[in-house]
């Protein structure tokens, strides 16, 4: 392996070369093709989908010179191994994980020149759970309703990535000079995560004591956690049985079922729901929750622009 495979150069990628192929040798526990999803189709019953950590995803594309919506790979809990038929720059962002090229550790995987035929492997993250791999030129995948995102709830989009999957790669792009210290996503790393949210639309169905409990409890992310949503465990809110018509839901919605333990919707959430939504996470903190693993501690804090907001 050459020195270029372990360093993080900031020079143009060279002349565009079409016809590259990415071959998956090992897909790990869960790898999918994602772009920024299918916004604007909820009225047709189509979820948005897209990456669970949008910041990590778009950053990977920017580092290799791709437009932010270019298809790339989302890897859950590591285990991915790939080769390229032509030398390209690649970027690994999101949850920090060990990266090797032909078995040699990569010191700065945010931007790597991967030689043709060399095997790039991504291990289990040290913190968080979702890592992103973007290739200069972008992955070529079939689009459904305008998007190449795999939606785990509806099955829309490309098939799940498996060992033996081969994906085309578009012409290489010049690599911009992006400060690589910006390439690391904020991910849970022990201690309590803090996620900001806005109250509503149904917070008025909960008593003041329950609204206070939502913001003072050290919630835990349960084992029921995937791209659809994350169920929290802790002292239940006393919502009981509520007769509501189904309403539209959004990414980050904090829905409270009869059990009283909140469920926070993530990228592949359903477009409607019948349980009351007490609040909605900020968009940035949806990315943070997209990196949470079972057992992580989560505190919910009302969002405001001028210090702590009082509980209504």
Rg to the nearest angstrom? 20 Å
Shape: elongated
Number of helices: 3
Count of strand segments: 21
What is the mean predicted local confidence, pLDDT?
Answer: 88
List the strand order in the largest sheet.
7-6-9-4-1-12-11
Strand content: 25-35%
Produce a short descriptive summary:
The chain is mainly beta and 312 residues long. It has helices spanning 54-63, 208-216, 283-289, and strands at 20-27, 30-34, 72-76, 80-84, 88-94, 99-101, 104-105, 112-114, 120-122, 130-135, 139-140, 166-169, 192-199, 219-225, 229-233, 247-248, 253-255, 263-265, 272-273, 277-281, 297-302. The chain has two domains: 3-182, no CATH class; 192-302, Cyclophilin.
Describe this structure in words.
By secondary structure, the protein is mostly beta strands. It folds into two domains: 180 residues, no CATH class; 111 residues, Beta Barrel (Cyclophilin). It contains three helices and 21 strands. A seven-stranded antiparallel sheet has the order 7-6-9-4-1-12-11, with no helix packed on it. β14 and β15 form a beta hairpin. The longest helix is centred in the N-terminal third of the chain and has 10 residues. The chain is elongated and about 60 Å long. The protein starts with 19 loop residues before the first strand and ends in a 10-residue tail after the last strand.
């Amino acid at each position: 392996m050459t020195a270029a495979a372990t360093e993080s150069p900031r020079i143009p990628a060279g002349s565009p070369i079409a016809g590259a192929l990415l071959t998956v040798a090992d897909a790990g526990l869960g790898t999918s093709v994602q772009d920024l999803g299918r916004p604007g189709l909820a009225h047709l019953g189509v979820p948005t989908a897209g990456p669970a950590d949008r910041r990590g995803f778009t950053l990977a594309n920017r580092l290799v010179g791709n437009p932010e919506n270019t298809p790339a790979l989302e890897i859950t809990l590591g285990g991915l191994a790939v080769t390229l038929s032509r030398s390209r720059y690649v970027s690994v962002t999101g949850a920090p994980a060990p990266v090797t090229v032909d078995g040699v550790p990569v010191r700065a995987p945010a931007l790597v020149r991967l030689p043709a035929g060399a095997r790039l492997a991504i291990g289990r993250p040290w913190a968080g759970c979702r890592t992103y791999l973007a290739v200069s030129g972008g992955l070529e995948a079939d689009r459904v309703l305008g998007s190449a995102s795999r939606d785990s709830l509806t099955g829309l989009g490309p098939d799940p990535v498996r060992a033996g999957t081969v994906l085309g790669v578009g012409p290489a792009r010049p690599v911009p000079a992006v400060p690589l210290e910006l390439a690391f996503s904020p991910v849970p790393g022990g201690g309590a995560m803090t996620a900001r949210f806005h109250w509503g639309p149904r917070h008025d169905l909960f008593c003041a004591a329950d609204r206070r409990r939502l913001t003072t409890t050290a919630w835990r992310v349960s084992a029921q956690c995937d791209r659809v949503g994350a169920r929290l465990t802790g002292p239940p809110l006393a919502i009981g049985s509520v007769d509501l018509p189904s309403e539209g839901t959004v990414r980050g919605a904090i829905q409270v079922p009869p059990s009283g333990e909140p469920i926070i919707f993530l990228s592949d959430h359903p477009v409607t729901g019948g349980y009351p939504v007490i609040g909605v996470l900020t968009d940035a903190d949806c990315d943070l929750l997209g990196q949470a693993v079972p057992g992580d501690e989560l505190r919910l804090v009302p969002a405001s622009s001028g210090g702590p907001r009082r509980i209504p």
